[in-house]
């Protein structure tokens, strides 16, 4: 999925029955949105574009439809130019793993490819397993990802049964905490570098435990200096009039954001 989209804004919203504002709300701005489970990241971009009547809109880092949490949306060319800088920041996620089942996509949206009985793991065993993933390591990008190959995302090929092997990439896990355990689930907190695939981490954890695993829930809590606690509730964006008011009440200017970003050495 492309980070930027130039599609024109819709002229009406049949589900709400209200036309969007005609005049652009502002020249440029950065918005923190708490994406709910269900819509795609691209859909959230569409809703912001509709509410503010601005075509140049992009997001800094895709969240899958089943995931929720912080989505940084940039509006206007002065803001979209900063997308790569936003994506460079470290990330914090809360994730839930289902043990005993492996899927094609390493998450709940894929087909089951392996299933094993899950033994009763002690907390000490689980924490020892997680400790082994701390630090810098090489991670192989999943087949079902937005990573490009010859201009098309890997999932384009995977859905057609074409396997494209990408070389492992260096990532860093700064923190990996066990929050809660269930009979066949783990809830963890992950602080990681850019480019880390949490569903690949989930699959690797399951492989290390010997039972397999896949990701069933994911929430992004932080990206660089930005936290979901300061974000606009994404469910409010369905109404273009309400969305406009909510977004403008929490807009960050390009100048404000640049002051928060680390300066290049």
Provide a descriptive summary of the structure in words:
The chain is of the alpha+beta class. The protein has two domains: 4-88 and 225-260, 2-Layer Sandwich (Alpha-Beta Plaits), CATH 3.30.70; 91-223, Pseudouridine synthase (2-Layer Sandwich). It has eight helices and 15 strands. The chain has helices at 41-52, 77-80, 83-87, 123-131, 154-158, 198-209, 240-249, 254-260, and strands spanning 4-5, 29-35, 57-59, 68-75, 91-99, 101-103, 112-115, 135-139, 148-149, 152-153, 169-181, 185-192, 213-223, 226-227, 232-233. Strands 1, 2, 3, 4, 5, 8, 11, 12, 13, 14 and 15 form an eleven-stranded mixed beta sheet that branches. A two-stranded antiparallel sheet has the order 6-7. Strands 9-10 form a two-stranded antiparallel ribbon. It is globular and about 60 Å long. The relative contact order is 0.22. Mean pLDDT is 87; it is low at 1-17.
Sketch the major β-sheet: 11 strands, mixed
State the shape. globular
The Rg value, from CA coordinates, equals 20 Å
State the separation between the terminal residues, measured CA to CA. 31 Å
């Amino acid at each position: 999925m492309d980070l930027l989209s130039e599609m024109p804004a819709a002229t009406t919203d049949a589900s709400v029955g209200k036309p969007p504002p005609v005049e652009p709300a502002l020249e440029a701005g950065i918005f923190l949105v708490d994406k709910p489970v269900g819509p795609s990241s691209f859909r959230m971009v569409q809703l912001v574009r509709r509410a503010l009547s601005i075509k140049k809109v992009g997001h800094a880092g895709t969240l899958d439809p089943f995931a929720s949490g912080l989505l940084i949306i940039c509006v206007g060319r002065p803001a979209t130019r900063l997308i790569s800088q936003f994506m460079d920041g470290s990330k914090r996620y809360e994730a839930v793993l289902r043990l005993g089942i492996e899927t094609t996509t390493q998450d709940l949206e894929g087909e089951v490819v392996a299933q094993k009985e899950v033994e009763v793991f002690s907390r000490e065993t689980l924490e020892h397993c997680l400790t082994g993933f701390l630090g810098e390591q090489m991670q192989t990008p999943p087949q079902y990802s937005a990573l490009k190959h010859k201009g098309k995302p890997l999932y384009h090929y995977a859905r057609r049964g074409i396997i494209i092997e990408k070389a492992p990439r260096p990532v860093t896990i700064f923190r990996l905490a066990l929050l809660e355990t269930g009979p066949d689930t783990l809830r963890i907190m992950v602080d990681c570098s850019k480019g880390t695939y949490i569903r690949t981490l989930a699959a690797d954890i399951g492989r290390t435990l010997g039972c397999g695993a896949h990701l069933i829930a994911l929430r992004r809590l932080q990206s660089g200096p930005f936290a979901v606690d300061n974000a606009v509730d994404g469910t409010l964006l369905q109404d273009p009039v309400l969305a406009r008011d909510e977004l403008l009440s929490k807009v960050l200017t390009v100048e404000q954001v640049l002051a928060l970003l680390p300066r290049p050495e």
